[in-house]
Amino acid sequence: MAGATRKWLILGICCISLFMVGLDTTIVNLALPSIQEDLDATPSGLQWTVDAYTVVLASLLMLSGSMADRFGRRRTFQTGLLLFSLGSLLCGLASDTGSLIAFRMVQAMGGAMLNPVAVSIIANTFTDLEERARAIGMWGAVAGVSIALGPVVGGALVDSTGWQAVFWVNLPVAALALALTALFVPESKAPRPRRLDPVGQLLVIALLATLTFGIIEGPVKGWGSAPIVGCFTVAVAAAVSLIRYELRRAEPLLDVRFFRSPSFSGAIASAVCGFAALAGFLFLNALYLQDVKEFSPLHTGLLTLPMAAMTLVSSPLAGRIVGARGPRVPMVIAGAGTAACGLLLTQVRADTPVWYLVIAYVAFGIGFGMLDAPLTYSAVSGMPRSQAGVAAAVTSTGRQVGAALGVAVLGSVSTARVHGPFSSGFPAASHLGWAIMAGCGLAIVTLGLLTTGSRAHRPAEPSPEPAPDQSAERVP
Questions:
Q1: Euclidean distance between the first and final Cα of the chain, in Å?
Q2: Three-state SS for 95?
Q3: What is the DSSP letter of 468?
């Protein structure tokens, strides 16, 4: 096979994995009401069905990149495909909420080994800068398509086969990717891989897990109860310990000095807010349309098509605007669209007409479509060129952290306020959740205005590193 053809085939293999993982982040939302009915799941159980995946994914993204550099990118990629397939198979076989949540975590362990490793494979395959830019552009387009099509595909599968199908659909796709990877993707490793940071990794897991648990379970167990207070205490302690520990390492898992760059910090904060809005929107909207409006899963998915269409139109437009005028304009549009959708949905009732909902969905589609390009640009431009890959990995982690917090926060404040039958009480109870979504949009507007100027985009210069703690440096 010619070298050029092989390179684009490798890109296609990587895009298959991206499509599968991206689809899985949104496809499950359409299955939630069916899972609730079939497995007798509680509202917090539904939140954990989504967040078990995103929390584990966010926790392991940076680690998987280091593992791939050290042990081999193709080997790590194949391991991720196998784990993701196993988790998908087991999710479809789950007989209760607890086992489904556990199997979603297995899925996420595999998913964490796919996308960041695939980016490394692409960078190693496309050495010409122009070709690499084209490849990354196609990669980004596939990411947008997978997220946009998730609700529609999920609705069709649940309607035709059942909620198990949203997991089993991954199996043939993963099998194809595994076979093609074995045949066409060469093995590669970093000449000098970064040292592993197990202590930093454990602190990241402790921070995300306890914070998410506290938010989701707080309405059930009581915000002042010992388990919830203990969770938030551990989360704060883990955050402080992570910062102090990582500052002492020569090769930290997360270099907190990066956050001295206003551009980088603004991009990460915007990623958290934007993806919190997306995940919260998909979670609440699926429950509203199916439990309150009593639409079928397929009808629910089709109603989100205006949002998906506007996302697909806005994404490439945002890239062109960033190239011509910088990230500020698309960032402000992204926040304004998100805020407009949230404000419109604060008025939903059980009898809200579909045309009103479609207007809100269009606003959100425009906003979300405008978000990703300025995020990536701001994160990378706020770092020295040699740190661009790490900056992109931290931004991806910020997206997943936002998704986990969006389901946890918006889901908790909405479901906890339901009085009477769930279907009749949910619209009014969800208003606070939609208001928080609008707040996320306003935060993105503010961050776009404050962190995207010419002064903010000066790359962060690493400060002289303090003498590393010798005990920390001995950690393998």
A1: 41
A2: coil
A3: P
Q: What is the pLDDT of residues 26-40, one digit of tens each?
A: 788 888 889 998 999
Q: How far apart are CA 21 and CA 26, in angstroms?
A: 9
Contact by Cβ (8 Å): 66, 198: no
Q: Helices in 249-304 by DSSP H: which ranges? A: 262-287, 297-303
Domains (ranges, CATH) in the chain? 1-186 (1.20.1250.20), 198-252 (no CATH), 259-453 (1.20.1250.20)
**CA-based nearest residue to 322, from 367, 269, 375, 272:** 375
Which candidate, 136, 138, 107, 133, places its Cα nearest to that of 119?
136
Dihedral sign, CA of 44, 49, 54, 57? positive
The pTM for the full model equals 0.81
Q: How far is CA 202 from CA 29, 102, 241, 353, 407, in A?
A: 29, 19, 11, 48, 23
d(C-alpha 292, C-alpha 289), whole Å: 6
Query: Dihedral of the CA atoms 24, 439, 262, 214 (nearest 10)?
Result: -60
CB atoms within 10 A of CB 464: 5
For residues 300 and 30, is the Cβ–Cβ distance under 8 A?
yes
CA 389, 116, 210, 476 dihedral sign is negative
The residues, any chain, with a CB within 8 Å of residue 16's CB and separated by 6 or more, are 173, 176, 177, 180
472/468 Cα distance (integer angstroms): 7
Cα 148 to Cα 125: distance, rounded to the nearest angstrom: 28
pLDDT in tens, 206-217: 998 899 888 888
